[in-house]
Amino acid sequence: MPSHTGNPTAEEPRRLAVLEGVLERITYANEENGYTVARVDTGRGAGDLLTVVGALLGAQVGESLRMEGRWGSHPQYGKQFHVENYTTVLPATVQGIRRYLGSGLVKGIGPVFADRITQHFGLDTLQIIEEEPKRLIEVPGLGPKRTKKIADAWEEQKAIKEVMLFLQTVEVSTSIAVRIYKKYGDASISVVKNQPYRLAADVWGIGFLTADKIAQSVGIPHDSPERVKAGLQYALSQSTDQGHCFLPEEQLIKDAVKLLQVDTGLVIECLAELAEPPEDGEDPGVVREKVPGPDGGEPVTAIYLVPFHRAELSLSAQLLRLLRTDEDRMPGFRTVAWDKALGWLGTRTGADLAPEQEAAVKLALTEKVAVLTGGPGCGKSFTVRSIVELARAKKAKVVLAAPTGRAAKRLSELTGAEASTVHRLLELKPGGDAAYDRDRPLDADLVVVDEASMLDLLLANKLVKAVPPGAHLLFVGDVDQLPSVGAGEVLRDLLAEGSPVPAVRLTRVFRQAQQSGVVTNAHRINAGQHPVTDGMKDFFLFVEDDTEAAGRLTVDVAARRIPAKFGLDPRRDVQVLAPMHRGPAGAGTLNGLLQQAVTPAAPICPRRDSAVGCSGSATRSPRFATITRRARTVSSTAPSAWSPRSTRSTSV
After folding, report:
1. Angle, to 10 degrees, between the axis of helix 380-393 and the axis of helix 355-366?
2. How much is the pTM?
3. Which helix (H) or strand (E) holds 247?
4. CATH of 197-306, one of 3.40.50.300, 3.40.50.11690, 1.10.10.2220, 1.10.760.10
5. 631: pLDDT strictly greater than 50
6. What is the Cα 593 distance to its own chain's centre?
7. Are 150 and 108 a contacting pair, CB within 8 Å?
8. How many CB atoms lie within 10 A of CB 541?
9. How sure is the predictor about 206, in pLDDT bands with cuts at 50, 70 and 90?
10. For 256-265, how does the pLDDT look when each residue is reduced to its tens digit (9 = 90+)?
11. Which CATH number is 17-169's, of 2.40.50.140, 2.60.40.1180, 3.40.50.720, 3.40.47.10?
12. What is the gyration radius of the CA atoms in the chain, in angstroms?
């Protein structure tokens, strides 16, 4: 469920609370991100320990910590302190030093040797380890090897603490500091001081704005070329979040000047340097290329981030590879008797195909790459089922996939065959490479991708790479539905004029579908006509000009009216889509209102061990989620065939 929390204004910053205590034990520690759950003694007496959570890389049992953060409460574990920053203070008593050393802080020192060392050196123990570690050999049982091991471990811990302390002085939170240290190790201070904008490219979770803030803290000039170059790449990255594969050069320069508040001339110079290939053979920062202008006009100078330019060229090349290969993994359909095959299919499915559907079936089973498109109610689903039935009758290996889990489940139910998401099919992990690619292709004769309008450029490229030569690839989708969240409109470009990929567009709305208000009005809206609301059993339009009233009405309709009229469970059967995140009718506010209406919080028991029971369930309520996506401007006229988000599949 998207969370919605109020942001403090600049005039009223949220102050961090301060907590001081001795780290008594570490309950859990994640070595990758530094996240730690620990118990500290705040000196309140009675043996009470307090739970602290957060990034505590380098903190060790026995250390005195001064922590800054916020108080919170966990539904199961109770009161907690969420640490954002901390500093350490070395113990000042022999007992504290003994516990500090015996905690596992220094490899080679356990409780036994910690006791021996502190007995020998007393309060000078830590100073001896810091300044004269060779003297540790004076302690019975400590030989040269163990002494060196202890000295090295002490230096390693000291280095971590020095890095963390420095990063905190330049206003880097502890959680981000952990990521920086994990990436650069002992070089962290040097990178942050001299190349802070590397952080945005190298460290997950750090974007340009965070790197820019760090750069200001270490004194990087406002008009530094490195800052401008990083800002240009950030502006391009932001545009990909809006669905664009590239930006026209003029637009990028304009956006960068506004973002960075520097002279236009400096931006132009830095952009030229970014686009220049380095002498060491590495990739340039961006790719500059001429592309066809809108509506066949003058060419436009496009600026790409390197991964999107590569993916665009690769996708075109891979589609050509599949289209032009002489191999065919379903050769039987070249000479099949279609009258007999379609007759058998009719007895199998219990219905005959319309002429358009027959053409789509033949196309998918005879062409290496094909597209099946059409609006709602035009029979795409039944056509896909027919294609799969015929392919399986010929013992073909059919692989079914869709961009989302819901679409994959629907495809599986439709065909009676297993379907998966594209990510699962390719065994694609976030930020990583796919397990299947050109060198290790899928074991498939026919690959069907449903809801292909949701395929973005990067995912489509990875998918097509994994299709083996000779296999048939069928894209199925409706280009008039919402485009992909990621950059590119792959399906629209495959259907564009001049594309070599053959396609069939289903246009006939079947009688059963004509009775649906959703289907009827979808086609009316696509044709530029107003939707019909009278006499529709499954389509309702509520008009509300006031935004707050619209939010309240949405909650009432979703939580009360629809469940009451159709006998549905609002927690499992109703889904709300919002075009924006913020505002009284945005996803954030709606989530809170829907939760209050559908899954209100259960009463809180006064004590966990109280004999007095609480009404309501102690288990977690099912989440009532709103599905959000960025708002898009919709024109009543036909959309232009060109936009920066387009991929160049027309050049296939």
Report:
1. 40
2. 0.67
3. strand 246-248
4. 1.10.10.2220
5. no
6. 26
7. yes
8. 11
9. confident
10. 999 999 999 9
11. 2.40.50.140
12. 31
